[in-house]
Amino acid sequence: MRLDDRKAARIEFEKVLRTDPNNPLVLDSLAFLFEKEANWKGAVAYRNRLISSSKKGNYSRAVHLYKRAFAKMQLNQLDEALADAKASVALSSSSYEFQALLVQLYKLKGDLAGQNRESIKLKLLESDFLPLR
Questions:
Q1: Burial group, residue 34, by CB count within 10 angstroms (0-12, 13-18, 19+)
Q2: If both were cysteines, with which of 25, 42, 50, 106 could 34 make a disulfide (CB 3.0 to 4.6 Å apart)?
Q3: Per-residue pLDDT tens for 40-59?
């Protein structure tokens, strides 16, 4: 997507939000645009709105927590990123991607015990992907 297309899309999405401020598709699209531009603060702002409007315990909430954790990691807000990553894994413990981010965050924080503990869980998830014999 070209930068001009992104700007035009953002303008149109903002128009929709004026009449429907909690439209999850538009909020997610805007978060995505900010993520593509590595505008992590903007991405976090839209993920915050999505998380606050999503139902507790559903998978989409887990996805938004994971994506916010990634953005906060890019902003070097590691404690907040770790809290979000833990919450995403708690909602979806079978997600390899969520678990891998959790391991990465423990590593970045220098928490070897946490990294090792979560790496074991990650290895168990990897074994689920092995072909049956």
A1: buried
A2: 42
A3: 999 999 999 999 988 887 89
CA distance 71 to 63: 12
Distance CA 39, CA 34 (A): 5
Q: What string of DSSP letters covers 15-38? A: HHHHH-TT-HHHHHHHHHHHHHTT
- Extract the tokens encoding 92: 């979806």
Q: What does the alpha-carbon distance between residue 16 and residue 60 come to, in Å, rounded to a whole number? A: 21
**Entry pTM:** 0.88
Distance CA 2, CA 113 (A): 44
What pLDDT score does 3 carry? 55
CA proximity to 30, closest of 41, 19, 62: 41
**Residue 33 structure tokens:** 């645009």
CA dist 1 → 13, 17, 36 (Å): 16, 22, 9
What is the 8-class DSSP label of residue 56? T
Residues for the chain: how many in total? 133
